Amino acid sequence: MVFAQPWLVILTVWFCVMYFRLVFYLGSVDLQLRAMLAVPEAEGADAVEPWLETLGWIAPLGALFAPAMGWIQDRRGSAAAFFVVQVLGILHQILLMIPVVQLQPISFLLYTCQQEALFAVVLSSLLHGLGPERFGVAAGVLFLFGAAAAAIVSPATAAALLDPSGLGFLNANIGLLVLMLAVTGLLVLQNQRTHLQVSLSQISLF
Q1: Is the dihedral of CA 154, 155, 156, 161 positive or negative?
Q2: Taking the domains of the chain in order of start, what are their residue ranges?
Q3: How many Å apart are CA 21 and CA 25, to the nearest integer?
Q4: Contacts of 114 (CB under 8 A, 6+ apart)
């Protein structure tokens, strides 16, 4: 069965984690900024407005990163492209754990670059791995799983807000960083598996 292939299962799990993280961030960025600013509830909306406007200006710049991502994948291979996406996400996640609002424009840029890079890498990997005949259905199924992961965002955000310690988003970001490191391990294992298969196929030619 096509969808039972190990590399495709790993790609799906990885995409769901990355997509959930991005959607969780976008849905809670205003709340996280308020927590960093530590302003009274009544002043929160006004205090974060300039920062959200900055995010709005920076977000489209991520599209400029997509061609660079394609170049990396074409010239350096899929492993390098996945590595770049992962590093962008990890750096973004670390910045969110530093409660300094002046650093957040950098996190805005990392967010939008990773978002563009994620879809570029995933779609090209599907096309390369399955071919054009199965690409459409596979992409649809992958995005369906991504949507299911994103459906958890609202209850996750609510849980972060209800944390009695007041550190709900910090704890959530720590958890997401651990999850990202775990799926990095999956990517490394898959890369090693691919290299092993290539080596065995080369040996079989002799």
Answers
A1: positive
A2: 21-36+46-195
A3: 6
A4: 18, 22, 62, 85, 88, 89, 92
